[in-house]
Design goal:
alpha+beta; about 55% strand
Length: about 70
Amino acid sequence: MNNIYKHIELTGTSSTSIEDAIQGAVARASHSVRNMRWMQVLETRGHINGGKVDQWQVTIKVGFTLEE
């Protein structure tokens, strides 16, 4: 059977790293979205404070299969 996917966009933030921002967004979404299968990074940006990156913001598209 061929799968059908629905997708949503999420934006995760982290003061640590891009990867942490992504992991946080996926972990939080997993509380209410089932059957997540893939993700794609759409945009990466950050906040600068005092000449240093203070916070990362990463927008991802997450695909999940629809239930029967």
